[in-house]
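Hi R.,

As promised, here are both runs. First protein below:
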Amino acid sequence: MSLNQLIENCKINDTKAQGELYKLFSSKLFSVCLKYSKNYAEAEDNLQDAFLTIFNKIGQYKNKGSFEGWLKRITINTVLQRYRTEKVFDIINENSIEDVVLEIDEDEISIDYLLQIIQELPDRYRMVFNLYVLDGYSHKEIADMLNINVGTSKSNLARARQTLKQTIESYKTAKSTQSL
């Protein structure tokens, strides 16, 4: 069955087609959920919520643009909706923002460790960091998505980078001390 036919069958609530669509895209969308969630269990919950939203809104997909991109946007928005209602974002004075450069040596830091420390960031930092750094959204887009101001987005990104930088430096120090 073609993807277009699968989509059309999902639009008429064909549960078999929905199962196929889930199998086809769940691993990719789970990785999106994992980036924005605190842990694995929360990512699983977010994936389920995202698919419920996808199946409810699939009738709105008009076969224009990438279907996978549409799924990813729905997934990100579903996850972010949870944090919007929890009011995890602080209003920050833009004048207090100091840009932090975060350099990661891939030979010293594994991707798994990096994902782990990103997941450990406070919600507001993790959301902005992932949206800006990993998914390429602008501060204006992030501000609109999270219902915050641009300055708060910039500040949360700077603080996320600062926190990650400190964590990575501590990790490197501990690693070099162990090898002595």
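And here is the second one, sequence first, then its structure tokens:
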Amino acid sequence: MKFLEEPLVAFDLEASSPEEAIRKTGKLLVGNQLVEDEYVEAMVRSYQKNGPYFVVAPNIALPHARPEDGVKEAAVAFVRLKRPISFGHSSNDPVRFVFALAAASSGEHLQVLQKLMQLLGNRENIARLANVSDYKGIDQLLGGDAS
């Protein structure tokens, strides 16, 4: 599983719509050969069809699609938006942090969600996500040492 590794993290990207935010985050997965282009479009279609169900907490969106839509390897990519945008969620908008999830099976999906919940279950970590300036800050949040 590729979980928030350096090539899967981008800071302060511009997005003018939820679809653009999803595509920019998904592009990190595609660029690292973890999903097919179709997977990103499936995430966008899921949002368009089902609404912002994946906006799970204030500021946080976890877009994803089905494994058969083109997952090659389980992964999570992260984009911090330069300006928060509304996804249409009644209580958790606007979104600033987009974590695109890719899992090839339900077991992997649960593993990915568990790792994310460990990170995002701590309010201090969420505050630090807003302020880190480079990948080293993310690595430290994950308990690594990118020095």
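A quick note on the second one: The two ends are 22 Å apart (CA to CA). Let me know what you think.

Best,
J.
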